[in-house]
Amino acid sequence: DAKTTQPTSMDCAEGRAANLPCNHSTISGNEYVYWYRQIHSQGPQYIIHGLKNNETNEMASLIITEDRKSSTLILPHATLRDTAVYYCIVHTGTASKLTFGTGTRLQVTL
Amino acid sequence: GAVVSQHPSWVICKSGTSVKIECRSLDFQATTMFWYRQFPKQSLMLMATSNEGSKATYEQGVEKDKFLINHASLTLSTLTVTSAHPEDSSFYICSARLGPGLDTQYFGPGTRLTVL
């Protein structure tokens, strides 16, 4: 699976949009971009995934650049409960194992 | 979404004893379960992949005789840390996959093991 690069940490004010970037310049044509998050002392939680089109669900939006070499996860109105480590993973999405990088620690503040 | 539970949520044991952690998929059958370990302020590290009815596949560097994994049914996998030592103290997280896609992989709440 392709490697990803994310900033170590980010801050965001509550109520504002949180934009979390991810670089995946070596992504293959059959690899999806997945986002998970892990709130402190809990298991990871799936957020969203996409191949090349932008995606939106009840939790977040995913914007993938046209060349697919980078993406941005958008939390439109961040709350304190969104404070977590966010992991960007590129993966074929099939039955093989899921491994995590270091992620971005997002701190949402008042 | 689907629910994965772990028991216990935390455990403290003496050095040299064995500890068993259970992982259950509550409302679905999972042919594949995964065990991860996470040390403080570090990312999750995959330990092993467990398939129902067959031997687990361990990641490089993970001692299979120390971390015994049993996946006897489609809803239960167990991880036994044998002869635990303080360096085994960690957050252990299991995950179960409902279908072929990663978006069908659900994680348990984790078990915090402290070895004295």
Task: Outline the structure in words.
The complex is a heterodimer of chains A (110) and B (116). The model of chain A has no long low-confidence stretch (mean pLDDT 93). In chain A, the strands form 2 sheets. A 5-stranded mixed sheet of chain A has the order 1-9-8-3-4, with no helix packed on it. Chain A has a 4-stranded antiparallel sheet with strand order 2-7-6-5, with no helix packed on it. Chain A contains no helices and 9 strands. Chain A is mainly beta and 110 residues long. The termini of chain A are far apart. Chain A is 0% helix and 45% strand. Chain B is mainly beta. In chain B, the strands form 2 sheets. In chain B, strands 2, 4, 5, 6, 9, 10 and 11 form a 7-stranded mixed sheet that branches. In chain B, a hairpin with a 6-residue loop joins strand 4 and strand 5. Chain B is globular. Classes of the chains: A mainly beta (110), B mainly beta (116). The interface between A and B is medium-sized, with 23 and 25 residues.
